Amino acid sequence: MTLLSYLAGLTMVPHKTPVLFQYLFPQYLWKKKTEEKVIYLTFDDGPIPEVTPWVLACLKRYRAKATFFCVGDNVRKYPDIFQMILSNGHTVGNHTYHHFNGKTTSDEKYLESVRQCDDEFNKHQVKSDLFRPPYGRIKASQRKALPDREIIMWSVLSKDYLKTLNPAKILKASIEATEKGSIIVFHDNLKAYSNLSQVLPEYLEYFHQLGYRFHSL
Ligand SMILES: [Zn+2]
Q1: Residue ranges with CB less than 5 Å from ion ligand 1
Q2: pLDDT tens readout for residues 45-79
Q3: Which H or E element spans position 42?
Q4: Which of 15, 90, 187, 215 is the catalytic position?
């Protein structure tokens, strides 16, 4: 078990990814080095009609660009919502077809799921080199089998999916963990929506007021 998977399994996972990880796993992108007031927003697990269009409308208000790590099966089910992400000028990345946990999935099954997600993207004439392993869990053997991918982790985990945290707590912790060049994870899934719907507008407004811009990867 790697240190990352060990820590990710703890309930007390910090909102801010320990800097140590960037040294232990330099092959992954955790944040971008910049002196500019830029935040990289990422949304995992969509696209779904119940949440993704709402996220897109929020982003539009701030002319914010984001990266959506899409589950291939959702792209298949909701091609119009996927198309909506693209037509709004956002970037998409592969999040496997089945939302597999790499640590508990055979390499063969895992890599097939990555390919299947690519296939769904291809139907929209989209090719993406960006890959985010679901749960941040991937075996070294799987990573090595995906040499042309840029593996995107995060420096801020909003924990919007945690029912035990209220929106005010999530907002405060996410703001405190954010710095220039941060990559923050939100989720356009049903589990996160009750928190996300309150946290995202406030988070965007807070950093907008401070002069930050929101970019895709
Ligand atoms: Zn996910």
Answers
A1: 44-45, 134
A2: 999 999 999 999 999 999 999 999 999 999 999 99
A3: strand 38-44
A4: 187
